[in-house]
Each structure stands twice: as structure tokens, then as C-alpha cells.
Amino acid sequence: MLFSEALPVREIVEPLRAALATHPLVVVQAPPGAGKSTALPLDLLQEPWLAGQRVIMLQPRRVAARAVAARLAEALGEDVGGTVGSRVRFESRVSAATRLEVVTEGILTRRLQRDPELAGVGLVILDEFHERSLNADLALALLREVQGALRDDLRVLVMSATLDPALPERLGAPLVESAGRSYPVDVRYLPQDPAGRIEPVAARAVRQALAEQEGDALVFLPGVREIRGTADLLEDVDAVVLPLYGDLPLAEQARALRPDPGGRRKVVLSTAIAETSLTIQGVRVVVDGGLTRTQVFDPVSGLGRMVTGRVTRDAATQRAGRAGRTAPGVAYRLWSERTHALLPAARAPEILEADLTSLTLELAQWGAADAALPWLDAPPAHRLDSARTLLRSLGALDDAGRITPEGAALLRFPTHPRLAHLLTAPGLGALAADVAALLEERDPLPREAGADLTDRVAALRAWRVGGRDAARRAGADLGVLERVERLSRQWRRLLDVPAGPDVPVHADVGELVARAYPERVALARGSGAAARLPGRFLLSGGQGVVVPDGDPLAHERTLAVAHLDASGAEGRVFLAAPLDPAALEARAVWADVVRWDSRAGVLVAQREKRVGALVLDTAPLAEVPAALREAALIGAVRAEGLGVLSWTADVEGWRARVQALRAWRPGEDWPDLSGQALLDTLEGWLAPHLGGVRSRADLARVPLLPALQALLPWPLPPQLDELAPTHLTVPSGSRVRLEYRADGSPPILAVKLQELFGLADTPAVNGGRTPVLLHLLSPAGRPVQVTQDLRSFWNSSYFEVRKDLRGRYPKHPWPDDPWTHAPTRHVKRRLS
Asked: Which residue in 501, 549, 576, 722 has the most C-beta neighbors within 10 A?
């Protein structure tokens, strides 16, 4: 027995062993503090089915991975790197003696890609799975596929404090649940939500908590800036104030997690990393700022970025639970109780919202480009399509979606594929390390410093050589520069290159940015230097962008843009670098282009030297390929609508007849000639008639009737004239045109009343099935009655109409008996 019997999780050890002995996938739910992360992995190391193989445990955060590994190793009386090891980004502490590896999630994906069978691994533990990170969902999907195809002996254990109740059933896995043990926590709210920044609100709450409560305090804040600001406001409190966040040096992280050596009270200012696996000894008070930072896709940088938002209710519950680990505690929530009820119940799975570029590349390497994996929630198809488009532009995927050697090389780098592509630039390793680090971190220079990324590289290198004074002269943020340098150093170590102290070359920085953002190479608007529009550029992706007035980059001819606000008609450039025009030319390809100029209403056919939407040069196209011409014209009609064609009365009448028969005879093959159907099938009926069309006027002259008539399969053409004739002959001998309706309502026969004397039955079409709608006209051609029952009209309404009209039209016959009077188109005969 490796842990104290007092740990609540001890109650489920035997049921868990039994479940894992007979099931390849098991779910464990145990509340915070139960010991699942720091007891269960060691308890399972000697299981017979493990047969001496290793255990890998995933943690979603680096701080948690290091801390959990340290606690596990301490329980064995060892240092990390012995029986218990850890692997996080840029850091590995394992040895041949290691049996249990605590790793961050991307590490497992890398290992699976290298060795899909996971040779030597008998159990994988996915801890804190409720967070539903993108990497955790991917790892679970890959592991389930490995279990089904390669390793029926591999066990997977999914653990968390809070889980979707439906998860075990969705996974087809047994649930082992620990009731746990926690002390009561008194949750207190503010009377109303605070306004302004969180730092002074949090500092006031900490002072109140220290005065009212016993024990150490854990304060949840969204990020490093808020942690530093709150710490500055607490300099005079009678307690040790310690930060805790992911980029903190290991020694300082360890200091925050352990009791103060001098016995003083401790205030730990932490990001969300302290929500789950980390145990901070002595905490009796939680102050929850109610905010959290989550990663979302950022169109400004083209990467993921951290966005501050409200905490979810389940996360707030986990945070408050930190105060009740060892004794009754108090949680101060810095929002109102009314607001708490309106918070989201839980965070959405990251796979449904995040940028999927890295995931898509991993899937291509795995050989599952169609994403056909046993997902809990499948990645959205449109996001996968966008990711594939980007990866093809980086050369990471071929046209069929398969990974290329370049794409495989990008997976060596634990970062977004954009930055990985930047880091693989030949001959620019030191500069690439600096640029990648700057793009991944916050901007170290103030906004008024301009948009040139080269200035950021210069400030970093000046600080590297000249220290704080050099950074201050550049107006740089020292804290940001320190983080950038730490990251750049890690990239240089991976690339095996020394630091670059020299002044960077603008064109080299621009070339690196263009490698990461191929759709953001930009050309100044206007033709020629004299006509150039300062500050206004067109991106190769098609968007117009603006460099702020007064920025030196506004007068460049070509740029590579890294960060921009793409909203609005023209985006605003935040970070960019000049690009050598020759580099833009090198990316260009000649293509035959046939397009419709909607402003001029003409077809344009030329050879264009292009980089995406950027046209660098043109030449006339001697022969226009028929397929390209037809495609451009069809696109023009779709864009401008069917109204660009000439719809004469004859064409509309013929079309209405067909549509009416389609409505009357749904079981037959009458084609759909509705506007949308015609637009959808332009290639089939209109394209063959577009020969010689080069302008909008030519489109209006295209004969539509033969084009549409070709849509009628045999024997429908003669049936059309039989079932839906254009005219009907009335008793007077006149041939009167019928007006058909596309919706299948009765066709209208507008005829003078006198021409129907003696006719009892209403005329019909559609083989006698559909009576026409008679518009009975006065001698002046105005409707006096609308009916489908002519017999009833003669017997009743006719006499009212006769009384009203015979005085106005005395020269026309108005007989007492319409049944016996001869039908006529003329006035009364004159008496001789």
C-alpha cells in the first residue's frame, strides 16, 4: 500500500482493479482531493495484466504534470526521473528505471505517431478529462483505434472530478465512482457584480479573507498580468504572496505549492491551473475572480490565442472545493449570486470551437485524413476543410489530403504548423527562433511603435546584449521580452543554432512571416509607383488591408502580414514586415484566367502572373478555352441572376406551361423550371448556347426558348401542346390565348362574354382535368365576372351583368336567352 488509508480514493482501488482486469476502457469519477491523481497510478503499477510495462498519465497542463510527478515520486521516496518521470514541452525527466510517466497531452500524440502500438506501455491514464481539451479528445480517439486494431491488451483509464453522466455509456465503459470526502465550504457572493479591473476587487477580498478566516488563501485570476497587478496591491499584507502560472520557473512553482518554511500564512495568486490536479497544502480560503482564459482561434494572428471570459459553474464548483480539502473552508466569489445562476453550466468541448490545423495535420500523419476515428464529438467538417486549405498552402498536405515530407517535418515542432513552417526556413534558424517566439507571445512594444515586426526582433536582440537599459530605450515590456527570450532559447536548442545578436534584415523577417502566412503576402494597391496608394494593400488571400497613417510600412510595395484585424471592409495591420518583391515574384505562377468583369459587363480573358489574388503581370490570351469561358459566363449569370437573360413573353409562357403540367402531373417527367432549379443547372441547358458571348448585351441576346425546349425529354414536347395548348377556340370562332401559372393554379382564359353565348361547360385543359378560370370581359375588354362555372353564370349572374351593361353598350347584343343566341365577336347587325 503506497498511500495512507485515509485517502478517500482508497475505497475504489479494489473495484478499479477488478474493472481493469476485465475491461480495456474504464471511467473513474472522484471529487477533488480524493487522491485519484496521486494514489491510483502507483496502486496500479503491480497489476498482473500490466506485466511490467509502463504507465503513461496525461495531464492537461505543464504545471500540473510537473507537480503530480513530484508528488508521486515523493511518495516513493525518490526524485522525478526514477520510477516516476515527467515529460512536458521542451523538458524530459525520465530514465530506464521509469515505470510511470506523467506527460502533457501533446507528448502522447507524438509517441503514438512514432509507435502506434505503444510498445512497452500497458496503461494510459487520461486525467482531468472533464476539461475536454482538443489534445485529450484526439488522444482518446487514437487510443480507442489502437485498442481495436493493434493492442487488445492496452488499458485506458479516463479520470476526472466531474464528468458528463452519459460519458461511460458513450464509451461503452464501466464507471468506478468514489464518493470522496470533502469538508463543508461556505460560499459567499458579492451583493452586485463589480465594475472595472479585477485586481483591486481581488486585493480587497484577500484582505477581508485574511482578517476573517484562518489558513492560507488561493486566489484565482485569469492571467499573469492580473496576478502581478494584484500582487503589487498586496505588498503590505501580513502573508507571503506567491504567484503560480505555467511559465513560472520550477523552483517558484514548488514554493507556491508547499507550506511556507517560516510558518507564515500564504496567499497564492494562480491561474486556472490550480483548479484540479494540483494540491496546495494549507489552503482554507478560496478567492475566485470568476474569470478564466481559454484558447480560441484568433483570425488576427491566425493562431490560437487566450481570451478572457466568465468561469463556468462546474469550474467554479471545483475552485471552491479547494477550500475544503483538509478542513472546513470559505470561498469568496467575486460576482453576485444572481449572476452565478446565469453562468454556463460547463465549457464546450474544445474540438467544437478551436482551430483544427494541428489536429488535421496529426490526422493526416495517422492516415485518417477523413477524420474517421471513434470520436466523442467529431470535429466540425467546415473547420477541417479550412485547416486542409491552410496546410496545402504550407506544403504540408498534397491535393489529395495526404501528408507530405514537409508536413511530417512540421510535426517535429511542438507548436502551430504555421510557426513550425517558419522554423524550418533554410539558413535562418536564429532569426526564425526569434520571430516564432515573438509571434507566439504578446507584443513587447507599445502600439505607437508601429507595425514593423523587424523592430521587435531588434528590441529583443538589443535587450539580449544590452539588458534592461536597451529594452527601456526601445520602450519594450521587460516581462514580455523575458518570456519571448525563454521561448526563443528553446527553439534555438531544438534547431541547434546560436542566438543572433546582429541587426535583422527586413527582407529576411518578411520571408519568415510569408512562410507562416502565405495567404497574407500583400501588394500595394494601385498600378505603378506613381499611382500607388500609401498604406493600402491587397492580401493574396483577397482581403484589402490598411497600414495606419504615418507608419513607415505604409510606403512599402510588398509586405508579409502577421497580425491583423480582418473585420470590416479593409482590415487593419498590427504586425508585418517588408517583403522583397523578388520573393513575391518567386511565389507567382502564370495561369490562364477567364473571368467576368461585373462592373464593365464584359468577359476578360488573359494570362495572369498571380500569387493568390495578387496580379503581378498580365498578357493577352490569344485563344479562350471553351471550358473556362463557359464557367466564367455561368458564374456571371449565377451572380447577377436570371434577369441578365432575355425572358420574352413567349419564353415565359412556354416555361409556365411546363411548370403547370409539372404541378398537375407530379408522377411524370416534367422538368423543374423554377428560378432556383434553372440557376442550379445552368451548365446543362444554358452553357451550349453561350458560344460567342462576351458581354452583358450578348447574354441578353441568347435565344432561351430552344435552350429550355431541349430540357423536355421525348415524348413530352407533343404532349405539351396537347395538354397545355397556347390557345383555345371559343364558340365565336376566335382563338384566345391562355395564361398559365407556374404554381399549377387554373390557367386564365380572358374572353368577351358575347363570344361564349350558348356554351354550357367551362373549357378545360390537362386532358379535361383542369377547368380554366374564365375572365368574362365587357365589350371594352374589362372583366365583369370571374368564374369556373359557366353554366351557373348563364342561369344567374348573367342577368345582373346584362342589366348593368346593356345601357352602356347598346350596340352589342344582350339577349334575354343567352343559351340560344348565336355567339359573336361583333356588334348587332344593322337593319336594312
From this structure: 576
Architecture of domain 185-352: 3-Layer(aba) Sandwich (3.40)
Q: Please state, in angstroms and rounded to a whole number, the distance separating the CA atoms of residues 285 and 700.
A: 78
| 572 SS3 class | strand
**Positive or negative CA dihedral for 676, 678, 680, 682?**
negative
Give Cβ neighbours of residue 560 (< 8 Å, ≥ 6 apart): 510, 511, 512, 513, 514, 517, 520, 521, 522, 576, 577, 578, 579
Amino acid at 314: D
Go through 136-165 and write b for each residue having 16 or more CB atoms within 10 A of its CB, e for each that does not. bbbbbbbbbbbbeeebeebbbbbbbbbbee
Q: Is the pLDDT of residue 828 over 90?
A: no
Q: Check pLDDT > 50 for residue 363.
A: yes
- Alpha helices (runs of H) in 76-133, residue ranges in sequence order: 105-114
Q: Grid coordinates in use for 440?
A: 507566439
Q: Which residues pair with 653 in a beta bridge?
A: none
As a whole number of Å, the end-to-end CA separation of the chain is 133
Q: pTM above the 0.85 mark?
A: no
Per the prediction, the chain carries an average pLDDT of 88
Confirm if 398 and 466 have CB atoms less than 8 A apart: no
**Is residue 815 helix, strand or coil?**
coil
Which pLDDT score is estimated for 829?
Answer: 61
Output phi, psi for 38, to 5 deg. Answer: -110, 5
Taking Cα atoms as reference points, which of 725, 718, 765, 723 lies closest to residue 746? 765
Helix (H, G, I), strand (E, B) or coil at 589: strand
**Would you give the DSSP letter of residue 529?**
S
Determine the distance from the C-alpha atom of residue 736 to the mean position of all C-alpha atoms in its chain, rounded to a whole number.
Answer: 60
The CB density around residue 117, as the number of other CB atoms within 10 Å, is 12
**pLDDT value of position 296:** 64
**Residue-level pLDDT at 697:** 94
Top-level class of domain 8-177? alpha beta
| Alpha carbons 135 and 295: distance in angstroms, whole number | 13
Sign of CA dihedral 791, 797, 800, 801: negative
Which residues sit opposite 606 in a β-bridge? 593, 620
Q: With contact defined as beta carbons under 8 Å apart, do 659 and 676 qualify?
A: no
Confidence of residue 695 (pLDDT cuts 50, 70, 90): very high
The CA dihedral of 430, 436, 441, 447, to the nearest 10 degrees, is: 90
Provide CB contacts within 8 A for 544, sequence distance 6+. Answer: 525, 536, 537, 538, 569, 570, 571
Spatial separation of the C-alpha atoms in residues 212 and 136, rounded to whole Å:
41
Beta strands per DSSP E along 547-629? 558-565, 570-578, 589-597, 602-611, 614-620
- The answer for 727, left when phi > 0, alpha when psi is -120 to 50, beta otherwise, is beta
Candidates 484, 540, 495, 550; CA nearest to 513 is 540
Which are the contacts of 285, defined by CB distance < 8 A and separation ≥ 6?
A: 209, 213, 215, 216, 217, 218, 323, 329, 330, 331, 332
The answer to whether 424 and 431 are in contact (CB under 8 A) is no
**H helix runs in 76-197, sequence order:** 105-114, 134-149, 167-171
Closest CA to 643 of 596, 704, 578: 704
Contact of 7 with 36, CB cutoff 8 Å = no
CB 583 within 8 A of CB 573: no
Q: Which helix (H) or strand (E) holds 269?
A: strand 266-270
Give the three-class secondary structure for 228.
helix
pLDDT of 74 reads 86
Residue 224 has a pLDDT of 85
β partners of residue 266: 240
The Cα 667–Cα 2 span in angstroms is: 77
Evaluate whether 563 touches 577 at the Cβ level (below 8 Å).
no
Cell 409562357 belongs to which residue?
653
